[in-house]
Design goal:
Catalyzes the insertion of molybdate into adenylated molybdopterin with the concomitant release of AMP. The chain is an alpha+beta fold and 340 residues long. The chain is 27% helix and 28% strand. The protein folds into three domains: 54 residues, Molybdopterin biosynthesis moea protein, domain 2 (Alpha-Beta Complex); 106 residues, Aldehyde Oxidoreductase, domain 3 (Alpha-Beta Complex), CATH 3.90.1170.30; 148 residues, 3-Layer(aba) Sandwich (Molybdenum Cofactor Biosythetic Enzyme, Chain A), CATH 3.40.980.
């Protein structure tokens, strides 16, 4: 800390907030900690009764918190992010568009283990809207050794993908098959189709066809083949997913020649979820809970497929931690613990 005359302070860095009081007009911080004094600030400081001020005694090799935070933010940022201006040594990162936040837990941990470095983010695979705050960077001291920031920048480069990015959901052509003899024969009204159509459209995709099939393997398979022939890029098959003998949806999908990734997911609701692939085209078998529960395994998995991921069984198994929905009276997802 150094005491200098106000007239000699241009370029110096304040180490504390400075309050300005004008009766009936203002009482509050006029200059914030970390402010770099400019020529035009001198008359203001003198009018505040400041003949001398205390500033940081900058030493070679140290950089200001604003520069450090900005360099950290640039080091961790991939596509789909907007960085705001530094304020009090902090940079806020916001989503440039709707999508899913991809955040590397290993990368975040690696950076935060560096002395004085802070990176705080939302959870991995968090659904965001344009303008949402997704992360913040800053450093603890007002001035930090540049070697630490260089190490942070080099650490970020060791990861194959950016530590933070927002991936947009791609618009898919989606085919829907509603199974169940009771719906197929018109004994009850279809409640599944409107729910699935609403979710698909909310994610920015379109339903190219919705068909009905009784609890018959050949009919379900015929519907899937027809939708594939019409250019479907994602297939949703609803109902018939339990272990009852007449629930044949999993059998129909498996015997179609699809690559089965998982039949079952450690998510409640959604335990009987199925994921398979016909080449590059994902097929999801959806249990009945998707029809009546606000958020299920389907809501955790489908957006990741729309973001371009090809999921493995390991990806599904990892959903067990945070995979319990608390059935809140009013669903606040994603602002809750589900899927985290």
């Amino acid at each position: 800390m150094e005491k200098i005359k106000v007239q000699d302070s241009v370029g110096a860095i304040l180490i504390h907030d400075m309050t300005q009081i004008i009766p009936g007009v203002i009482k509050g911080p006029r200059f914030r900690k970390g402010h770099i004094i400019r020529e035009e600030d001198i008359p203001v400081l003198l009018s505040m009764g400041k003949e001398h001020i205390y500033v940081w005694d900058q030493k070679p090799g140290l950089i200001h918190e604003n520069e450090a935070a900005e360099r950290l933010a640039n080091a961790v940022s991939g596509s789909g992010l907007i960085l705001d201006e530094p304020k009090e040594g902090k940079i806020t990162l916001t989503a440039a568009h709707d999508g899913l936040l991809y955040s590397s837990e290993d990368g975040i941990l690696a950076l935060n283990t560096l002395e004085g470095v802070i990176l705080s983010t939302l959870h991995n695979h968090y659904p965001v809207k344009k303008g949402d705050k997704v992360a913040g960077t800053r450093v603890v001291p007002l001035m930090i050794d540049e070697k630490i920031i260089i190490e942070a920048e080099e650490t970020a480069k060791t990861f194959k993908t950016p530590i933070l990015e927002v991936r947009p959901l791609k618009p898919f052509r989606v085919g829907i098959t509603i199974t169940g003899s009771e719906v197929f024969h018109g004994r009850i009204q279809d409640k599944f189709g409107p729910v699935l159509r609403s979710k698909v459209e909310n994610w920015g995709s379109m339903v190219i066809e919705q068909t009905y099939a009784s609890d018959d393997v050949s009919l379900i398979q015929a519907s899937i083949r027809d939708q594939l022939a019409k250019g479907a890029e994602m297939l949703l098959v609803s109902g018939g997913m339990s272990v009852d003998p007449d629930d044949v949806t999993p059998t129909a999908i498996k015997e179609l020649g699809a690559e089965l990734i998982t039949y079952g997911a450690p998510v409640l609701p959604g335990a009987m979820f199925l994921l398979a692939y016909m080449g590059e085209i994902p097929i999801m078998g959806l249990p009945g809970c998707v029809m009546y529960a606000k958020t299920t395994a389907f809501d955790l998995i489908a957006p990741r497929l729309l973001a371009g991921e090809r999921l493995t069984r390991h990806d599904i198994v990892k959903l067990g931690s945070g995979g319990l929905c608390l059935d809140c009276p009013v669903c606040t997802y994603p602002h809750c613990s589900f899927g985290k």
